[in-house]
Each structure stands twice: as C-alpha cells, then as structure tokens.
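Input (structure):
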C-alpha cells in the first residue's frame, strides 16, 4: 500500500492521540467523517496500524527504575537462541528484548520499582534462564526522549 500525504498526516495524528474521534480528525484533515473512517479501516486491514494501546506512566505505578541489560549467551546455536527467547518473553519486567549484533547478543529494557527489585529480578529470574553467559547492566539516569511516533 502506498501512503499519500493525507494517510501520513492521519497516522501522525492517531499516533499522537488515538482517542481523537473521526469527527475531530476530519476537521484537521479537511475530509468527511466517512472518508476518515474508511482510511483508518484500510490502514488497519493493511496492517499499517498494528494495534491501539495505553501508555502508562511507569513512575505512577512503581516501575520507574529502568535498566538496560546487555546479555551474552554461552553459545549461538539455534537451540540456545530459541530457548532463551521463549523464556525471556515470559518475564513481565522485560519491556523490550532485542537480538543485536556486536559485543552482546541481546539488549533488554527492564522496568522495576528500584535497585532492590532489580537485584531480586536478576537473581531469581533472569540469571536462572539457561544458556546465559554474562550480563552487563546500565541504569537510566533520566529519559531525554521517548516516543512511540514513527515518522513516515
């Protein structure tokens, strides 16, 4: 699907606030409510709009301590990778897990209440996963930029 400038503007508006009504969007896009509705449905059918979510303020729910954990596996076999990935996705503290190139195999974004909670997570959950060779943790001091908007 080729996106025109109206589709791109619509996607920007929805990414900025997906609770806007089709009427509000139609006024900003100079389109009818029906035209906006049909564009949204098409973007959903094509898989360009993947899902709608609520972003939670982590500090308000005692998950303001953010850790980036770099992790190496002991070997890079297909079996070890599959086993690690199937286990790490089950850990609720892990917000993101990326298989990367370079000195480490994975980077995990972990959110917990505080340092004590991170230590507990590390000792009782993360390091109990099989095939982990080493970990290196980096703690967030402040969040300079965080966005969910993909610029198209």
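Output (sequence):
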């Amino acid at each position: 699907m080729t996106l025109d400038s109206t589709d791109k503007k619509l996607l920007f508006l929805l990414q900025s606030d997906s609770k806007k009504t089709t009427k509000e969007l139609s006024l900003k896009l100079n389109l009818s409510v029906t035209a906006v509705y049909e564009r949204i449905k098409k973007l959903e059918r094509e898989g360009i709009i993947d899902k709608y979510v609520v972003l939670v303020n982590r500090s308000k729910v005692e998950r303001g301590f953010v850790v980036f954990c770099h992790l190496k596996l002991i070997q890079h076999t297909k079996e070890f990778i599959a086993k690690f990935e199937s286990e790490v996705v089950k850990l609720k503290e892990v917000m993101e897990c990326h298989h990367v190139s370079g000195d480490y195999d994975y980077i995990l974004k972990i959110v917990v209440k505080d340092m004590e909670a991170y230590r507990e997570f590390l000792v009782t959950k993360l390091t109990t996963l099989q095939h982990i060779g080493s970990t290196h943790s980096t703690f967030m001091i402040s969040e300079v930029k965080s966005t969910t908007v993909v610029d198209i």
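Notes: The chain has five helices and four strands. The mean pLDDT is 97.
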